[in-house]
Amino acid sequence: MPISTVRRGEIVSWSRTLIPTAKDAPTDAEAPSHKLLSRGGYIRRVAAGVYDYLPLAWRVLRKIEQIVREEMNGAGASELLMPALTPIELFAETGRAEAYGPLLFRLEDRHGREAALGPTHEEVITELMRGVVSSYKQLPLNLYQIQTKFRDEFRPRAGLLRCREFIMKDAYSFHMNVEGKGGLNEAYDAMYRAYVNSFTRCGLDFTVVEAESGPIGGSASHEFMVNCESGEDTILRCPATGYAANVEKCEIGERPHSFEGEPTGPLEVVHTPDCPGIEDVSRFLKVKPPNMLKTLVFKRADGAGWVLAVVRGDHDANEGKVKAASGGAGGAVAMADEKEAKAAGFAIGYVSPRAALSVPNTLLLVDPDAAQGMDRAKGKPSFWAAGADRHDHHVKHFNWQREMGAVLKDHHRVRVADIRNAMAGDPSPRAPGAALEAKRGIEVGHIFKLGTKYSDAMGFAILDEKQEKRSVIMGCYGIGVSRTMASCVEMSHDADGIVWPLPIAPFHIIITPMRVEPDAPAMKAACELAGRLAASGFDVLVDDRDERPGVKFKDADLIGIPIRLTLGDKALAEHSVEFKERRDRESKGELVKMDAVVERCLRAAGSVK
RNA sequence: CAGGGUGUAGCUCAGCUUGGUAGAGCGCGGCGUUUGGGUCGCCGAAGUCGGAGGUUCGAAUCCUCUCACCCUGACCA
Question: What is the ipTM of this complex?
Answer without folding.
Answer: 0.86
